[in-house]
Protein backbone atom coordinates (compact mmCIF):
# COMPACT_ATOMS: atom_id res chain seq x y z
CA UNK A 1 0.00 0.00 0.00
CA UNK A 2 1.32 3.43 -0.93
CA UNK A 3 2.48 5.58 1.95
CA UNK A 4 0.21 8.40 3.13
CA UNK A 5 3.29 10.65 2.94
CA UNK A 6 3.34 10.30 -0.85
CA UNK A 7 -0.16 11.78 -1.19
CA UNK A 8 1.32 15.20 -0.34
CA UNK A 9 3.33 17.51 -2.60
CA UNK A 10 6.23 17.81 -0.14
CA UNK A 11 7.73 14.76 1.53
CA UNK A 12 10.13 14.47 4.50
CA UNK A 13 11.88 11.15 3.96
CA UNK A 14 14.44 9.23 6.01
CA UNK A 15 17.12 6.64 5.27
CA UNK A 16 20.35 5.55 6.95
CA UNK A 17 20.02 8.11 9.77
CA UNK A 18 19.56 11.08 7.40
CA UNK A 19 16.57 12.93 6.03
CA UNK A 20 15.70 14.76 2.85
CA UNK A 21 12.81 16.88 1.62
CA UNK A 22 11.41 15.93 -1.77
CA UNK A 23 8.92 18.13 -3.59
CA UNK A 24 6.59 16.86 -6.29
CA UNK A 25 6.07 19.45 -9.00
CA UNK A 26 2.56 20.23 -10.22
CA UNK A 27 3.23 18.73 -13.67
CA UNK A 28 5.68 16.10 -12.51
CA UNK A 29 4.75 12.42 -12.78
CA UNK A 30 4.44 10.73 -9.38
CA UNK A 31 7.22 8.23 -10.10
CA UNK A 32 9.87 10.87 -10.87
CA UNK A 33 10.27 12.25 -7.32
CA UNK A 34 9.80 8.73 -5.92
CA UNK A 35 12.73 7.52 -8.04
CA UNK A 36 14.89 10.45 -6.88
CA UNK A 37 14.18 9.51 -3.26
CA UNK A 38 14.89 5.83 -3.90
CA UNK A 39 18.17 6.59 -5.70
CA UNK A 40 19.16 8.80 -2.76
CA UNK A 41 18.40 6.01 -0.29
CA UNK A 42 20.14 3.29 -2.33
CA UNK A 43 23.40 5.20 -2.67
CA UNK A 44 23.42 7.04 0.67
CA UNK A 45 25.59 4.42 2.45
CA UNK A 46 28.29 4.89 -0.21
CA UNK A 47 27.76 8.64 -0.66
CA UNK A 48 26.63 10.15 2.69
CA UNK A 49 26.67 13.71 1.28
CA UNK A 50 24.05 12.84 -1.36
CA UNK A 51 21.27 15.33 -1.90
CA UNK A 52 18.47 15.97 -4.38
CA UNK A 53 18.11 18.77 -6.95
CA UNK A 54 21.33 20.68 -6.27
CA UNK A 55 22.61 22.96 -9.03
CA UNK A 56 26.28 22.31 -9.72
CA UNK A 57 27.13 25.10 -12.15
CA UNK A 58 26.68 22.84 -15.16
CA UNK A 59 24.15 23.12 -17.97
CA UNK A 60 22.68 19.86 -16.66
CA UNK A 61 21.28 19.49 -13.15
CA UNK A 62 21.50 16.06 -11.55
CA UNK A 63 18.43 14.62 -9.83
CA UNK A 64 20.68 13.22 -7.08
CA UNK A 65 24.25 14.35 -6.47
CA UNK A 66 27.04 13.80 -3.93
CA UNK A 67 30.30 15.66 -3.39
CA UNK A 68 33.43 14.88 -1.42
CA UNK A 69 32.47 17.36 1.29
CA UNK A 70 29.17 18.43 2.78
CA UNK A 71 26.96 19.82 0.03
CA UNK A 72 26.29 23.52 -0.17
CA UNK A 73 23.54 25.13 -2.19
CA UNK A 74 25.86 25.62 -5.16
CA UNK A 75 28.84 23.39 -5.94
CA UNK A 76 30.21 25.39 -8.87
CA UNK A 77 33.28 23.93 -10.58
CA UNK A 78 33.50 20.90 -8.32
CA UNK A 79 33.29 17.43 -9.84
CA UNK A 80 30.62 15.32 -8.15
CA UNK A 81 31.48 11.91 -6.73
CA UNK A 82 28.01 10.64 -7.68
CA UNK A 83 25.30 11.72 -10.13
CA UNK A 84 21.86 10.07 -10.29
CA UNK A 85 19.24 10.53 -12.99
CA UNK A 86 15.60 9.48 -12.64
CA UNK A 87 13.42 8.82 -15.68
CA UNK A 88 14.08 10.22 -19.12
CA UNK A 89 17.73 10.95 -19.84
CA UNK A 90 18.65 11.74 -23.42
CA UNK A 91 21.58 10.24 -25.32
CA UNK A 92 23.18 13.71 -25.67
CA UNK A 93 23.10 14.26 -21.91
CA UNK A 94 24.59 10.83 -21.23
CA UNK A 95 27.41 11.40 -23.74
CA UNK A 96 28.13 14.87 -22.38
CA UNK A 97 28.29 13.99 -18.70
CA UNK A 98 30.34 10.78 -19.04
CA UNK A 99 33.01 12.68 -20.98
CA UNK A 100 33.14 15.75 -18.77
CA UNK A 101 33.00 13.90 -15.45
CA UNK A 102 35.27 10.83 -15.85
CA UNK A 103 35.62 10.29 -12.08
CA UNK A 104 31.89 10.55 -11.31
CA UNK A 105 29.85 7.43 -10.54
CA UNK A 106 26.61 7.67 -12.52
CA UNK A 107 23.29 5.93 -11.92
CA UNK A 108 20.33 6.16 -14.27
CA UNK A 109 16.99 4.84 -13.04
CA UNK A 110 13.86 3.78 -14.89
CA UNK A 111 10.42 2.81 -13.62
CA UNK A 112 9.09 -0.59 -14.65
CA UNK A 113 11.16 -0.52 -17.84
CA UNK A 114 13.43 -3.18 -19.36
CA UNK A 115 17.07 -2.12 -19.08
CA UNK A 116 18.42 -3.93 -22.17
CA UNK A 117 17.95 -1.01 -24.62
CA UNK A 118 19.56 1.39 -22.14
CA UNK A 119 22.54 -0.91 -21.62
CA UNK A 120 23.23 -0.54 -25.35
CA UNK A 121 22.76 3.25 -25.31
CA UNK A 122 25.06 3.73 -22.31
CA UNK A 123 27.66 1.23 -23.59
CA UNK A 124 27.75 3.17 -26.87
CA UNK A 125 28.19 6.48 -24.97
CA UNK A 126 31.05 4.97 -22.96
CA UNK A 127 32.98 3.78 -26.05
CA UNK A 128 36.34 5.51 -26.41
CA UNK A 129 35.78 7.49 -23.21
CA UNK A 130 38.41 7.18 -20.51
CA UNK A 131 36.50 6.71 -17.25
CA UNK A 132 37.47 5.91 -13.70
CA UNK A 133 34.00 5.32 -12.26
CA UNK A 134 31.07 3.01 -13.05
CA UNK A 135 27.74 3.72 -14.69
CA UNK A 136 24.76 1.93 -13.10
CA UNK A 137 21.36 1.27 -14.60
CA UNK A 138 18.44 0.61 -12.26
CA UNK A 139 14.92 -0.55 -12.96
CA UNK A 140 12.48 0.13 -10.12
CA UNK A 141 9.68 -2.43 -10.45
CA UNK A 142 6.05 -1.51 -9.89
CA UNK A 143 5.48 -1.41 -6.14
CA UNK A 144 8.88 0.16 -5.36
CA UNK A 145 7.01 3.12 -3.86
CA UNK A 146 5.99 0.72 -1.09
CA UNK A 147 9.61 0.94 0.12
CA UNK A 148 8.50 4.22 1.74
CA UNK A 149 6.40 3.72 4.88
CA UNK A 150 3.79 6.05 6.42
CA UNK A 151 6.47 7.72 8.57
CA UNK A 152 8.63 8.49 5.51
CA UNK A 153 11.24 5.81 6.18
CA UNK A 154 12.77 4.32 3.03
CA UNK A 155 13.78 0.67 3.19
CA UNK A 156 15.27 -0.44 -0.14
CA UNK A 157 18.36 -2.36 -1.25
CA UNK A 158 19.85 -3.36 -4.58
CA UNK A 159 18.22 -6.80 -4.09
CA UNK A 160 14.84 -5.03 -4.52
CA UNK A 161 15.63 -3.65 -8.00
CA UNK A 162 16.97 -4.79 -11.34
CA UNK A 163 20.51 -3.51 -11.47
CA UNK A 164 23.27 -3.46 -14.14
CA UNK A 165 26.72 -1.96 -13.64
CA UNK A 166 28.81 -0.90 -16.64
CA UNK A 167 32.49 -0.25 -15.96
Radius of gyration from the CA trace?
A: 15 Å
Shape, per Cα inertia axes: globular
Number of E-type strands: 8
- How many individual domains? 1
Can you name the CATH architecture?
Roll
Helices and strands, in order, run as: EEHEEEHEHEE
Instruction: Sketch the major β-sheet.
Output: 6 strands, mixed
Strand order, sheet with most strands: 3-4-5-6-7-8
Structure characterization notes:
- The chain is α/β, with parallel strands linked by helices.
- The protein has a single domain, classed as Roll (Restriction endonuclease-like alpha-beta roll fold).
- 20% of the residues lie in helices and 24% in strands.
- It has helices at 31-43, 91-100, 116-126; strands at residues 10-15, 18-23, 51-52, 64-66, 82-86, 105-111, 135-140, 162-166.
- It has a six-stranded mixed beta sheet, sandwiched between helices.
- Helix 2 crosses helix 3.
- The protein starts with 9 loop residues before the first strand and ends with a strand.
Features:
about 170 residues, alpha/beta, Restriction endonuclease-like alpha-beta roll fold, 6-stranded mixed sheet, two-stranded antiparallel sheet, about 20% helix, globular
Architecture blueprint of SSEs:
Elements: E1 10-15, E2 18-23, H1 31-43, E3 51-52, E4 64-66, E5 82-86, H2 91-100, E6 105-111, H3 116-126, E7 135-140, E8 162-166
Parallel strand pairs: 5-6, 6-7
Antiparallel strand pairs: 1-2, 3-4, 4-5, 7-8
Helix pairs in contact: 2-3
Amino acid sequence: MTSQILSRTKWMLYAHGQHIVVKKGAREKFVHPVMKALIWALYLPEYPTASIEIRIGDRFKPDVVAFAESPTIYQVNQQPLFWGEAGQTGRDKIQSIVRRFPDTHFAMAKWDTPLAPYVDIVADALKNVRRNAPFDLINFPIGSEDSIDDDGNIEITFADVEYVRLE
